[in-house]
Amino acid sequence: MVTPKGNEGFVDFHVPSAGKACQTWYTTFGDYKPGTRALVVLHGGPGVPHDYLNPISDIASYGIPVIMYDQIGCGNSTHLKEKSGDAAFWSVQLFLDELDNLLEKLGIKDDYDILGHSWGGMLGSEHAIRQPKGLRKLILSCSLADMNTWVVVADKLRAQLPEDVQETLKKHEADGTTETAEYEAAVNVYYERHLCRITPFPDDMLLAFAKVKEDDTVSMTMNGPSEFFVTGSLKGWSNVDRLHHIQVPTLLFNGKYDEAQDECVQPFATHIADCRWVRFAHSSHSPMWEEREKYAREAAEFLKS
Predict the structure, then answer these.
(1) CA atoms of 182 and 31, how far apart (whole Å)
(2) Is 51 assigned a catalytic role?
(3) pLDDT score at 160
(4) Does 216 participate in catalysis according to the annotation?
(5) Which of 53, 93, 143, 250 is most exposed, with the fewest beta carbons within 10 Å of its own?
(6) Is the pTM higher than 0.85?
C-alpha cells in the first residue's frame, strides 16, 4: 500500500546562530487541512531523512492525515555542513524548537499526535515531557530513553556477530578508520540482523542512507559513525528521570530482533502512566517495513481510540 502524497512545501525556521536563512521541508499524506488533527512523524538518525519511514504513510488510509518532515541539516531541509562538529549548535533544543515552529506554521499546534522513530522517539519524548497543550497522543517506535543502556545492549548484540566481523569493527573503531568500505561492510552485518531484516534493504531506506553519505554533518556530530558506535554529543544522554512528566496516552513499539531491545524501551513503560506496548515478533528496528500492515493497523487503532 502506498498512500499518495498531498501537499509539500517549506516553512521558514529562524535560527540566529545558523548564519543564514533556514527552512524545514514537509510533506503531507491523506486528507490533511489546517484544523484537522494530524500525525506528525519524527524521523531517526539524527540526520537520516524521512524517506525510510514512507510506509508509515499507510496510516493515512485509516482517515488519519500524516505529516512527515526532514529535520534541519538533512534531506530536503536546509543543510549546514559548515556546522560539522559543532555540538553546541546541533542540540536537542534545536530540534525541539524546529518541531514547535513547524506545528505553529502549519496551524496545528493546538491539536496533533506525534510518532517518533528511534532518535525521533527520543525527540518526541522530550517534546512530550514539556507537556505541550496541543499534543493528544504519542507513539514511540523502536526508541530509547537512555543512551548508556543503548550502548550496553548494542555491545551484547555485537558479541553475537561472527568473530571476524567483531574484530573488523573493533580494529577500525580503535584506528579511527570507520569511513572505510571494510568497516561499512561489517556494520551492514549488524544492520541486516538488527536494523532491517528485509534483504535487500527497501529502496526508500537505501535512498535515506545515500543522502546521509552525501551529508553526515548531523549524524556524525550527534551520534557517530554507526548506530552502535556512539561518539557524538548524544553520548550519555538520558531523560529517564523526566519521563513521569509525560501525561498523554502513549504507545510503544519495538521488534524481537530490534537494536532497541526491551531494556531500551522499558523505562518508557515504567515511568509513563498511560502506556501500552506492542512487540513485533518478526521485526528488528524497522517494523514499518517488516510487518507493515500490522504496524499501520496498531498505530491507527491507538490514534482513533
Answers:
(1) 46
(2) no
(3) 96
(4) no
(5) 93
(6) yes
